[in-house]
Amino acid sequence: LLPSFAHYLFNLVLGTPALSYIMAAAAASTSHQSYGSTFAPGARTAPPPLPASAAASAASSARLRPSSTQPLSTPAPAAATAPDILRYGTRVGIRSCREQRYIAAFQKEGGFDLDISGFHPFRQGDVANRAADCPSEWLLLHYSSRQHRGPVRIGDEVCFAKELTVAPGDESKDKYAYLALGATAEGSSMAPVVEVRESQELTRWTIGAAADSSSSSTTTSASAAASASSGGLLRSATPIVIRGKYSECLAVGKPLVMAGKGPATSTKFLTPSRLSGFQLACRGRDLKLPELHFRLVKAGVPFEVEPRRLSGWLPSYEGLKSDPTTDLGSMSLKEQELSLLEDVLFCMLGADGAFLRQVDLTTTGEGLHCEGLTDVKYQIQAPDDADPSLLQFMKQVLPLCECHATVQQFVVKQGQFEFGMVNHALCAALQELLKEFTVRVGQFETSLRNGRLSLSQLWYHIQPSIDTFALLKRVCNQVYGLIGGSVLHGIEEVMTRSSLTAAQDLCEHLLQQASIPYFDMISKWIYDGHLDDPYGEFFVSENARVRDERTGGPAADFWQRHFTLEERVVPGFIVSRREKILHAGKYLHVYYSSGPTTPLPETNRAHFQFSRKRNDFVEAIDAAYTRAASALVALFMRPTPDGLDLPGRLRSMRSFFFLGKADWFGQLLDTASTELESPATDVPLARFEGLLDLAIRTSSVASDPYFDDISCVMHNFRIEDACHRMTKGHTLPSEDQDEAKAAATSSSSLRGRPSSTLSAPSTSTAADNTCVKCFSLKYRTSWPLSIVFSKTMLLKYQVIFRHLLYCRYVERKLVEVWVHHQHTKEFDQVRASFSHSYSLRQRMLHFCRDYIYYVTIEVLEPKSHQFLESLKNMTSIDEVLRSHEQFLDTCMRELLLTGRDNLYRHLSKVLSTCLMFAWKLPRSARGLDEEDTQQAPDYSDPSRETGETRMERAKQKSQAVLSLLSQKQYSKTIGKFKDIFESQLQGFLRQIQQESSTRYEHFLSNLATRLDYNGYYTSSLSATASMGAFTSIPPSLAVSQQPSRASSPGRG
Q1: Is 424 helix (H, G, I), strand (E, B) or coil?
Q2: Other CB atoms closer than 10 Å to residue 673's CB: what's the count?
Q3: 633 backbone dihedrals φ, ψ, rounded to 5°
Q4: Is the pLDDT assigned to residue 598 strictly greater than 50?
Q5: Residue 372's pLDDT is what?
Q6: What is the pTM of this model?
């Protein structure tokens, strides 16, 4: 409030006229150096005394006329978006209208104490226990839909919840306690309590409008009228009643001091502040009782009752020279002019005069623009015999009075706490302009008292003020109901639509003043990583429900959703730097949360100030972004203990998940072969943990500094399902559903069987519930490395590892077949009979080894090296995240896991057939080995075996082999596997050809050339019936390539 008006009220008691006081205040005031002292752009000092011979016209005076070709629109914001409208999901306080205290729930052992002794719930940040630290804070939720976030209306059914502290990962406990009705100790009535009763109707409360009474204040009626005009939307200042299930309302009960005298209640341990409170009761249905009236006010926002209109502080015509009962026609022309001048000066200050009265348009509904400012209209109530020329001059002055009253109305309404600091700064700037205009009116009155002011002179000198206030009115209408960056954007829009330089200078001044708190938010955010936004004005919003891994939330969700960008509230002058501002603060927030040992380099904080000619703040924002981005990247790239050693972590991931150092993998397959072939439900995870640890510690990866972070896990989804979901753009399947429970018990089992199986014959070793199909590695990371190694990224690593494990397992089983075939090569008589089996096994082994060579040597190794090298040139952690995701997506696409479902389906069929052949062939020869063991003599002592005995044993075994080969079943099995393998391989190559003809990619041509080297399949198999319409691979796929060592059967 202006101090001069407080002084004025003191003088009013002594009978001092208002204009005389303003004249004295103007005479005592010093020269103002702020903008617009004369209310003409460019003027900086108070005007000299008005000359008596001032001209009646002001054609040459400077005017601020808006461009006629660009009319300004006055958008009226929706009622539901006003800052003082309450919305579901908002933290509120329940304030008693009679006692001005808040309903508070004080946590104790086993429950809560509920009374009306709390104070306003100011912002307390992310406290550890909101139920204990914020007793008067409640979460306002819709009763029927707890996730609803719309506006609250009169008549809605709501519930009031207290947020309880729940340990991370503990989903069994309740998150909220609710304000409910409970039976009293006597059992004869109901009283308010706080209990966990989410599904019961006793937690339902109905918001009702408080009825007017004789003791109701004008502000109560005004608040109720405002809510009624906005369609029943609930505002912070609206008195309400809160009805329970049985239609009784919450009410103020007895004082706690009196209640503590009874035997049932003890107040011995209550603090003095609580002892001054009252009990909370539930009684009464008379809506006029003041003890039933409450207000819901926003937590963290200071609350005040709506202030009175500024015009109510100024006197009316009583005691002044102008008297409405006086007949103007009986006065002389000079006296009429003096009386009308006195009325005009009063109207310039927002007060009604004797002959100039403000028209109340709210009764008829005219002048209302939804939730916009109310149009102010003045009406001349002068007798008919008044001088027409004087009345015409008064009509020309009325627009200035109306615009001034509108600006006053805007300052009163938009200057409330709910509208935020940007509006506070804008209203302060407007108040300075109003104060200077008040001084100007005081100077006019000085000239009037000295007999040196006429209506024509007044009209001449207020020309700049008329245009200035017209511009201010357009600004007020443009930004009314908006907060934060939307206010700045609205002022900037008015400035850009104004064609005159003087108008743009005035808007620039308002922007400079209003943007000071906004630039302070930006400065704290980009230099400290601290989001100081108590009123929700900043375009960077924080979602407290999305937490990092330190508080039980996934790191990927925290990075992407904890700090978000609100595009609609970004001011136009920083829209080009909005992304850099968001990321600069986010980088520093993560940097400081990791507790770095190396401090950030000191920097000179730039002084942000808006200027339409110079954008110095743009350069400062760029410098702050570079500082924050380089600091976080350096933290990730530096080796331990000063950094997080991201390159070392990535090399460790390559060694384990991509089998960069695979000697540990071979040892694991040797020691865990039995477990891998067993059903996943039969093998405890702890056994795999021990075998994995043994394999790692006896291999070259034992020197890896991060091998302790490697563990194993059993997945309950198939690789095919994961690849299909990734191809469709869906989220990846989750890991074992009982992983948390398994970690607590140090054992795990696969819960249930997978939904479907591969397109291979159903056998015990090829079924999808074997450990070889479910086993995978798990990597443990801590904050903030979990941002890079998020759950989605780790699942991609695990899918690649599971695919490599399966391919290596198939290769290993085929090598076992090769070892079995070595025992038959000593029989010269039957060697030719095994040629078909040898050839088929060799082609299968050649296919598996060539594909594994392609996966490891041509895809994973070069892509890993390129990614690690690219880390040296990255300037932000977002580039690291994008490059990391692109690297994994490229690897999975070139491994045929994603992007092309048909290719992976054909590849899976070929691998399944190879595995089935490797499993079936030794089983067919198992009877031969048993028969040979029974018939052969005992030659356990090598010294007793001679050449003749060896020849005899070879002869007997040769006869057994011939007997086996003579059976049709064996030959039929080999022929069937040969036909299936060749048919599936042809389909695989045919699909590669089709994909390459549709969209050429080099990795497909490399894979096709390696699998069909020298056109073997396209030439030797083209005549077979199974080839069908298969054609040769086009020259575009025939990349010149030397044969690899994979074709050697002894590799491996």
Answers
A1: helix
A2: 15
A3: -65, -45
A4: yes
A5: 59
A6: 0.73
